[in-house]
Design a protein that fits this description.
The chain is about 25% helix and about 25% strand. It is built from two helices and three strands; from the N terminus they run βαββα.
């Protein structure tokens, strides 16, 4: 049994609805797509392989609270 969360697969950390997007999608576009599908989590991919997760908390903490421009920030920089 794997107990270290860093050794588990990305998908094993996801609960609820999720949406899969490439790491080079900007946060503004990602939010629009996820909102349209009522998803809670974004699985971030590189070459169609999961490499990380972005949650609504990540977006709030790393974009909204810092006043960042979500059109200019890519998913790969906030996961």
């Amino acid at each position: 049994m794997i107990t270290d969360p860093l050794e588990r697969s990305v998908l094993s950390h996801v609960h609820g609805q999720f949406f899969v997007l490439d790491e080079n999608v900007d946060v503004a576009s990602a939010v629009k797509q996820v909102h349209a599908k009522n998803a809670e989590t974004i699985i971030v991919t590189e070459d169609e392989k999961p490499i990380g997760i972005v949650t609504d908390s990540d977006i709030l903490d790393k974009i909204v609270m810092r006043g960042a421009n979500s059109d200019k920030v890519l998913l790969k920089s906030i996961m």
